[in-house]
Every structure is written in C-alpha cells, then in structure tokens.
Amino acid sequence: MTVGDLKKWLAKEPATPDDTLIILSSDSEGNSFSPMFCVYSEYYRADSTYSGELVGNGVEEEDTISNGPVPCVAFFPVR
C-alpha cells in the first residue's frame, strides 16, 4: 500500500471522524492488535516481498538501484 492508496481509501470513508483511533495488526492473520504509537518518514530496504528493514536515510556501499532503500512511512504500534 502507498500513501496515495491510503488517501484514496480514507477519501471513500467520509464518515470517519478525524479523532478515529488507528489500530495496527501484529500480523496479516489479525492475531493481536495495538493502537498506533507514532509514525516516521524513513527509508526501507526489502529483504523479500514480505519483509525488510528500516535503514534511516543512509545509503550503504553495497546498495544499487534495484536493492537500495526507498522512501517510506513507518507506523509503530504501542506494543
């Protein structure tokens, strides 16, 4: 999902008040949930199609165009 996708989804939900709580799932199966704690603008390097790591804004020597970090918005749960 991109920021644009999220904006489009929110635009389709006009009845959602601005003070609606954001809840994050711990996994794709919805085994547990936690309120969102904070959000950061970061860089993400994918290890696979479903996992990777945040790398701040630094580019490392071994980075190439195909595996280099890309800008992202990272959401962090309370727990």
List its salient traits:
79 residues, four-stranded antiparallel beta sheet, mainly beta, 1 helix, single chain
Could you describe the 3D structure shown?
This protein is mostly beta strands. It is 11% helix and 35% strand. The protein contains one helix and four strands; from the N terminus they run H-E-E-E-E. It has one helix at 3-11, and strands spanning 23-25, 33-46, 52-54, 70-77. Strands 1, 2, 3 and 4 form a four-stranded antiparallel sheet that branches. Strand 1 (23-25) and strand 2 (33-46) form a beta hairpin. The two termini are 22 Å apart.
Concise account of the structure shown:
With about 80 residues, the chain is mostly beta strands.
From the N-terminal CA to the C-terminal CA, the straight-line distance is 22 Å
Q: Low-confidence parts, pLDDT < 50 over ≥5 residues?
A: none
Q: What is the N-to-C order of secondary-structure elements (H for helix, E for strand)?
A: HEEEE
Oligomeric category: single chain
What is the arithmetic mean of pLDDT? 86
Largest sheet descriptor: 4 strands, antiparallel
Q: Percent of residues in beta strands?
A: 35-45%
Rg result: 15 Å
